[in-house]
């Protein structure tokens, strides 16, 4: 995507051919910095502390993490150890499992002396596949936005509400929920995005707003609880979010607060769509609420907030009363009954088992 006119991916092979570079997302929105990963441990750390985040990008980073491990030691034992270590970094994003399973099954069949080269090729392929998938998601989602735009007065924007960051920064390029937005904007369809701040890590205010602004897309940052109010007053035409894991029946797990947006959308007859690449679908699960593990993150993310002072200093302050217990579930599950449709690389699907299985029969066969 464009950052002030210059094209970037979120992760790429460094010029030395043996290390990997990422955009350090912990520095947003106050700085744009590149970090370099030299080892598998560096990749695991980047995932764990959220230098990279978003299910597709986590999967891509894990692929490169395996490649870095194979460059250091291409043995069977190290392949299994690297995959196990990377798997433990984040429990919710199914793309992590998908990428590591793909790497393990593929590389175990390659002679050790050829594994490093094969692993880097596999990681590059995962990245290229993610971009192609997101472009297809963008085209299918743009049709939904275009249909709404045709019902509006000339020049009136389509108002889109999103939650968290399912943008370019959560993938290798384009994003999932934002791909239709970028394609609509670039294609001349007037759009305006309501950007939820997305407490407690503020991925909306810090990341989505940053990338939309640098790409030139009109947007407004709002507090998380404003979405329902805007829907009641007809100021939201469509909701599009991403997802970190989707069940075979169409339940979607996304950043905490997504479920409340879906409830508000249902009550106000606002279409609620979820944009997702097929690797995000977990065909082994049928009930998202009971079966998807929800990551419980540090309470410090809630009790502290980092910002920039008027003097320009970056400081972290406490915002919760002393002595209070803090809970921090990072995700929630939106049942399929609240989802209007799933925007995938193979079209917009109904959120049910048959529609999903018909669109991805090869994935169903693999999970059987």
From TrEMBL:
PANTHER family: METHYLTHIORIBOSE-1-PHOSPHATE ISOMERASE (PTHR43475). This is Methylthioribose-1-phosphate isomerase. The record marks 164 as: Transition state stabilizer. Belongs to the EIF-2B alpha/beta/delta subunits family. MtnA subfamily. One of its GO terms (molecular function) is S-methyl-5-thioribose-1-phosphate isomerase activity. The keyword Cytoplasm does not apply. Its EC number is 5.3.1.23. The active site is at 244 (proton donor). Catalyzes the interconversion of methylthioribose-1-phosphate (MTR-1-P) into methylthioribulose-1-phosphate (MTRu-1-P). The keyword tRNA processing does not apply. It is an enzyme of class 5 (isomerase). Substrate binds at residues 53-55, 90, 203, 254-255. Signal peptide: none annotated. Gene3D superfamilies: translation initiation factor eif-2b, domain 1, Translation initiation factor eif-2b, domain 2. It comes from Roseibium sediminicola. Keywords: Amino-acid biosynthesis, Isomerase, Methionine biosynthesis. It catalyses: 5-(methylsulfanyl)-alpha-D-ribose 1-phosphate = 5-(methylsulfanyl)-D-ribulose 1-phosphate. Pathway: Amino-acid biosynthesis; L-methionine biosynthesis via salvage pathway; L-methionine from S-methyl-5-thio-alpha-D-ribose 1-phosphate: step 1/6. The gene is mtnA. Pfam families: IF-2B (PF01008).
């Amino acid at each position: 995507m464009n950052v002030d006119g210059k094209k970037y991916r979120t992760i790429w092979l460094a010029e030395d051919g043996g290390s990997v570079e990422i955009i350090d997302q912990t520095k947003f929105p106050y700085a744009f910095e590149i970090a370099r990963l030299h080892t598998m441990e560096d990749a695991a750390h980047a995932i764990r502390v959220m230098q990279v985040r978003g299910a597709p990008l986590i999967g891509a980073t894990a692929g490169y993490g395996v490649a870095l491990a194979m460059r250091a030691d291409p043995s069977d034992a190290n392949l299994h150890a690297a995959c196990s270590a990377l798997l433990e970094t984040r429990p919710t994003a199914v793309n992590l499992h998908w990428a590591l399973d793909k790497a393990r099954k593929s590389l175990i069949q390659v002679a050790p002396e050829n594994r490093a080269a094969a692993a880097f090729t596999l990681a590059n392929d995962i990245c290229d596949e993610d971009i192609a998938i997101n472009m297809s998601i963008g085209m299918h989602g743009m049709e939904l936005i275009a249909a709404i735009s045709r019902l509006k007065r000339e020049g009136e924007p389509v108002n889109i509400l999103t939650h968290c960051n399912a943008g370019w920064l959560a993938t290798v390029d384009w994003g999932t929920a934002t791909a239709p937005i970028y394609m609509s904007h670039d294609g001349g369809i007037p759009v305006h995005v309501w950007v939820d701040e997305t407490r407690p890590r503020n991925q909306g205010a810090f990341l989505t707003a940053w990338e939309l602004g640098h790409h030139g897309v009109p947007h407004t940052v709002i507090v998380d609880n404003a979405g329902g109010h805007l829907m009641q007053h007809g100021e939201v035409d469509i909701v599009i979010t991403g997802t970190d894991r989707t069940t075979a029946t169409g339940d979607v797990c996304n950043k905490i607060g997504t479920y409340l947006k879906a409830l508000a959308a249902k009550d106000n007859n606002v279409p609620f769509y979820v944009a997702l690449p097929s690797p995000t679908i977990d065909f082994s699960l049928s009930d998202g609420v009971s079966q998807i593990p929800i990551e419980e993150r540090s309470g410090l993310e809630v009790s502290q907030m980092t910002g920039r002072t008027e003097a320009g200093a970056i400081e972290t302050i406490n915002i919760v009363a002393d002595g209070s217990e803090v809970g921090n579930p990072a995700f929630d599950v939106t049942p399929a009954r609240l989802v209007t449709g799933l925007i995938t690389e193979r079209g917009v699907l109904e959120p049910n088992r048959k529609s999903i299985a018909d669109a991805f029969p090869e994935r169903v066969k693999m999970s059987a």
